[in-house]
Amino acid sequence: MRIAIVTGFSGFASSYSLCSVVLDQVDGLTQLGHGVEVWNMANCEPNVPRRYAGVMRAVIPVHETHHDHPDHGKIEDIACAVEHNLRRFQPDVIIAHDIVFQTGGKTMCEGVSIARERWSTKPAVHFIHSATVDEGERWGRRGVFAGDRIIYSDASNIDVIARGYGIPEGNVHPIHASRDIGLAGYITDDVLRLIRRHRLHERDIVQVFPACHTRLESKGLRDAIAVFECLKAKNKSVALVVCDAHATGGDTSKYASDVLGDDLIFTSDAGVDRWVADGLRTRELVNLRSVANLFIWPSRAETSSLAVKEAMLAGELLVLNSSVPASRENARNDAIYAAWPEHRTNGGPVTGVTLADQLI
Asked: Quick count: other Cβ atoms within 10 Å of Cβ 38?
């Protein structure tokens, strides 16, 4: 069987969770004797593991900064490139990873949809790794056709996903990631430099706030800051490292905390020698978990199951939003659950004080 895996991300290192899931899938499918190709549509770094070099085919480079401002020329370029590969490879199955939600954005999603319409209406399988937990209007993304299947990382949100994409609930299936998703990766020189400069290995409490390209506000960053302010007020040495590499959320100074000061660190402007222009590389962020021991995730906007599982595998103390059903599905009794208010609002010092008392 010929299987085409279509995705878009900037690196294939094993320490980046989505890439790791995709490459793990390639491993399993090739061991079963299937012919597999991976078509990547982002500006991929040349760090493909040697054993996968034969199946990787770059479709076309499309920088992530263009996703929310689609250029019809780029959409048509993607459509033509994907259509060419579809006709050349003639896959029996198409698997799309994060194309119809978030990572692919409008540019990739539109391009892949057009190519599929031109080539065949054969059903595809879509893996999505995070989804809104809010009820509401149809999400309006193209890319999911009649007969397509959606694979999601937990069972709690299936009804919302089905309504959002306009397909029957029976076409949405939960599959839980079970492998160690790359936490044994090496610590790069840049990460080690960051750890030493901020003496992260000497702190009482350290959190690595998950890799966020956008939407730091809706992911509950202010709520996490409030907790860390209270922990520091209780004479704990703390550090909150916010992984905002490539973020398009603008000026990080709006999150400045007089209480935390330099204990609030953004990887986009961490000030370490030899930083790439826009901060620590995304594929290196998970290596910071070697010094983290706490994972506060107030977000109500997304389930972010992979981020939660990475923290679980790293042995961090989990503090999750009790209003997100997927949190309990993933962490069960191995977490503290907090009743944060609606996302996009600040939980404030009351939530911070309450949690700080529990944590120490």
From this structure: 24
Q: How far apart are CA 6 and CA 59, in angstroms?
A: 9
Q: What is the phi-psi region of residue 161: left when phi exceeds 0, alpha when psi lies from -120 to 50, beta otherwise?
A: alpha
pLDDT tens sequence across 41-64: 766 555 566 666 666 665 554 444
Report the alpha-carbon distance of residue 208 to residue 238 in Å, rounded. 11
pTM of the model: 0.59
Task: Find how far residue 201's CA is from the centre of its chain.
Answer: 25
Tokens at 195, concatenated = 């750890």
| Interval 143-171: pLDDT, tens | 788 889 998 877 777 888 888 788 899 99
CA distance 113 to 6: 12
Hey, which residues does 6 pair with through a beta bridge?
39, 96
227-260 core/surface letters (b: 16 or more CB in 10 A; e: else): bbbbbbeeeeebbbbbbbbbbebeebeebeeeeb
pLDDT score for 276: 44
CB 37 within 8 A of CB 5: yes
Q: Where are the alpha helices (DSSP H) in 234-320?
A: 305-313
Question: Cα–Cα–Cα angle for 130, 133, 135, nearest 5°?
Answer: 135
Token pair recorded at residue 261: 């000061």
Q: List, in sequence order, every residue forming a beta bridge with 276; answer none if it has no partner.
A: 279
CA distance 191 to 170: 44
Round to whole Å and give the CA distance between 250 and 254: 9
Query: Tens digits of per-residue pLDDT, 305-329?
Result: 777 887 887 789 999 988 887 778 8
Q: Are 354 and 226 in contact (CB under 8 A)?
A: no
Joined tokens for residue 21: 């899931």
Q: At what angle do helices 221-233 and 348-359 cross, to 10 degrees?
A: 60
Query: Which DSSP string corresponds to 202-222?
Result: G-SEEEEEPP-SS-TTTTTHH
User: Residues with Cβ < 8 Å from 281, sequence gap 6 or more?
Assistant: 11, 45, 190, 245
d(CA 244, CA 224): 15
**Cα–Cα distance for residue pair 91/37, rounded to 1 Å:** 9
116's tokens: 């599929």
* Per-residue model confidence as pLDDT tens digits over 258-273: 999 999 988 776 544 3
